[in-house]
């Protein structure tokens, strides 16, 4: 599955040699609640950024490997991001394998991916005894491989937890996009997530990522309760928080995901509102990254 990996424009140039003269941004798509659309929004936003001419790398940090599946890989047999992360930890030499980023990269319509595998569910246990900071493994991996010099954006699809993988993702990210479903459970879940951000801030080791956007997803416009819950959540988030207009529950999106395609692969006009939504998310990211 390995394909091309061109490091020529970037290596060892200490943050200054990406094509546009800056460092790429790392963005996590995150919510500890399951099934809110993290993978769906990450996948389509990656292609929205690609459509704007950006170089995008997706990291599938979820052992469920749903993003990996959308890139056309059913079951990762062999190496995955898990192995690359272990390889980057000197103390775990006994577990090192010969794989490189370039061996694992998968490409789909101009967007790259480092795939996940079920092994990632053992990540937390595997690194439990190491002496270097466990929450910075992903950040160091990205730095060591110069990935922010090779790509304009690194999109991370997170698992539905607040465990070590997600803490790693937050410590490695510059920005966070939070898809959510407008219900009462989400409101509680978002509070827990903000507490984690505060804890990371308290550690004082990394700059806390900026919350770029909340994305209400899977909204059913006909259900009054959802509208009320959405208003409550928006009020609770406060006026400083950015919340975009809802993405509705759309059969077109289900169809596209079933065919492992982004909404930009369709030209019929029923896909136009979805394309508009994901382009808006990409625009928020682009404006912030300037
Ligand atoms: N706007 C939408 N309209 C219709 N279906 C959607 C929409 N967004 C997501 N879905 C569907 O909802 C399900 C959950 O979406 P997705 O897998 O992206 O959520 P997730 O937050 O990544 O889940 P997990 O926490 O398990 O990783 C998927 O089957 C997806 O096809
Ligand atoms: Mg997911």
Description:
It is a single chain. The protein is α/β, with parallel strands linked by helices. The chain has a single domain (25-289), classed as P-loop containing nucleotide triphosphate hydrolases (Rossmann fold, 3-Layer(aba) Sandwich), CATH 3.40.50. 40% of the residues lie in helices and 12% in strands. It contains 12 helices and 7 strands. A 7-stranded mixed beta sheet has the order 3-4-2-5-1-6-7, with helices on both faces. Helix 1 packs across helix 12 (272-289). The longest helix is centred in the last third of the chain and has 20 residues, at 184-203. The chain is globular. Bound molecules: adenosine-5'-triphosphate (ATP) and magnesium ion. Adenosine-5'-triphosphate binds at residues 34-40, 62, 64, 66, 160, 217-218, 247, 249-250, 253-254, 257.
């Amino acid at each position: 599955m390995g394909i091309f990996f061109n490091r020529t424009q970037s290596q060892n140039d200490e943050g200054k040699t990406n094509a546009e003269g800056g460092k790429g941004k790392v963005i996590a798509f995150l919510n500890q609640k399951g099934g809110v659309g993290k993978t769906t929004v990450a996948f389509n936003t990656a292609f929205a950024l690609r459509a704007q001419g950006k170089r995008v790398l997706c990291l599938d940090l979820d052992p469920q490997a749903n993003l990996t599946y959308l890139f056309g890989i059913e079951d990762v047999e062999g190496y995955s991001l898990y192995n690359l992360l272990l390889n980057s930890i000197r103390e775990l030499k006994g577990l090192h394998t010969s794989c490189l980023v370039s061996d694992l990269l998968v490409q789909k319509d101009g967007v790259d991916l480092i795939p996940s595998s079920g092994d990632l569910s053992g990540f937390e246990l595997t690194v439990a005894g190491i002496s270097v900071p466990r929450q910075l493994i992903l950040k160091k991996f990205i730095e060591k491989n110069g990935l922010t010099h090779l790509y304009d954006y690194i999109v991370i699809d997170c698992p539905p937890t607040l465990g070590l993988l997600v803490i790693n993702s937050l410590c490695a990210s510059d920005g966070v996009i939070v898809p959510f479903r407008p219900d009462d459970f989400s409101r509680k879940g978002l509070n827990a997530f903000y507490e984690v951000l505060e804890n990371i801030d308290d550690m004082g080791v990394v700059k806390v990522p900026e919350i770029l956007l909340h994305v209400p997803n899977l909204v059913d416009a006909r259900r009054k309760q959802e509208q009320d819950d959405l208003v409550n959540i928006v009020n609770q988030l406060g006026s400083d928080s950015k919340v975009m207009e809802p993405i509705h529950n759309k059969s077109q999106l289900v169809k596209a995901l079933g065919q492992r395609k982004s909404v930009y692969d369709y030209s019929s006009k029923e896909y136009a509102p979805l394309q508009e939504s994901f382009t808006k998310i990409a625009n928020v990211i682009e404006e912030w990254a300037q």
